[in-house]
Amino acid sequence: MAKQVLKTNDLLFCTRPFFEATKVLTYNFLDIAFSPYDNHWKEMRKVFVSELLGPTRAGLFNDVTEMEIEALVQSISSHPSGTAINLNNKLLALVFAVMCKVAFGKSYREEPFRGATLKDMLDEAKNMLGGSIGDHLPILGRSLDKLSGWNDRLKKCFGNLDGYVQMVLDEHLSEISDNGDQKDFVHVLIELSSRNNANGSYGLTKDDMKALIMDVLTGGTDTIVVTMVWAMSEIIRNPRVMQKLQHEIRTCIGRKPKIQRSDIMQMKYLKMVVKETLRLHPPAPLLIPRECMNDCQVGGYNVFRGTRVLINAWAIGRDPRIWGDNSTQFYPERFLNVEADFVGENFDMVPFGGGRRSCPAFSQAATTVELTLGNLLYFFDWEVGDGLKNEELNMEEKGSLVVFRKSSLSLVPTKHN
Ligand code: HEM
């Protein structure tokens, strides 16, 4: 059924449903993630893929990621020995720094804006993107949204984020126009906005630019952090996996002072560990809602045009019919004999979705996770602390669009010589 939904009806389920918050927070659906399936979406996705994820920006992505990971390793090394570190906070700071530096040219996270940090503003936006009562019960629900103060919250949330993104744009506009090799994503968007459609390029409006920046901030931060935190949790809970993984990493690296992107290619077990994490803990368990574009049949059921379709990536990843009796066990070796990949023709696991609306950043995201985990496990040994055994780590979940650990992951690092 899951395979049939994604494979045979990809085009039928390519559009997104209308939610009030997505309309407001995406400047009337000008972004990629929540836009309907139309020419505008195609153009925005093209800009995103070629200008943010493509080869021109890949060098900057790699350099910034490696630099920030080095800073993370140094900061953990200087932590008082024998005491626990909140890995959620550390990894969030890392991913924010990478995303903001690649997209904006510098890390904006530490500076509060209108009394809130960027993270607080994004957390609020992500809560609202999950939808309101009015999105699910349109007639009565809209009045409830008004009475409960939800509409005012949305207005405030958009006002703050829009002000923030406007500040980023203004700062870039006031800089000298020739930035040479140092161009970040916002510089490129501004350049594209000054061209017009006549020469074949897409003339971006100010709202197009803001909507794209919002996609980087909402799509590119929590998802990566959540994956790293679940990976570290599973590794800690499974000492056998930790030992095998550290052996692989330390054997590959020898005495090199740091791990680089090129080293990761040889680390087959590390790649399997990340795949296994995304199978059991897809950060967006129901992906992003889709909507049926034409009447169709799925698994013998009639599905009418306009029906909202939620794809349960969490259940697909744990389905014993696909993954066998040990489907809920963290067992990376299962990928030795299984063809399954993140995206593509095989829909046995879909942490990045599938088909035309799949995540365009899956490759960069997976490499960032692999590189960070590789460094954390090369330089340090980890324990739960507080007298608990590693196997006793709490694995409860919480969240809506993105699902986190219920409690932060606090671990005690020991520097490995
Ligand atoms: C481990 C990290 C990530 C995971 C698990 C993830 C997961 C997803 C999922 C499930 C979707 C919806 C797919 C669907 O409906 O079929 C999606 C879409 C998207 N993601 Fe990601 N994502 C990650 C990282 C990123 C990053 C780093 C960025 C940006 C820099 C990003 C940008 C986007 C965008 C723009 C879309 C919308 C695609 C469209 O509708 O055409 N994601 N992602």
Automatic annotation (TrEMBL):
Membrane-related topology note: Single-pass membrane protein
Annotated source species: Tagetes erecta (African marigold)
Keyword terms: Heme, Iron, Membrane, Metal-binding, Monooxygenase, Oxidoreductase, Transmembrane, Transmembrane helix
Protein's recorded name: Cytochrome P450
Pfam families membership: p450
Annotated localization: Membrane
Keyword Membrane applies: yes
GO molecular function, one term: oxidoreductase activity, acting on paired donors, with incorporation or reduction of molecular oxygen
One GO CC term on file: membrane
Family note: Belongs to the cytochrome P450 family.
Binding site for heme: C359
Cofactor(s) demanded: heme
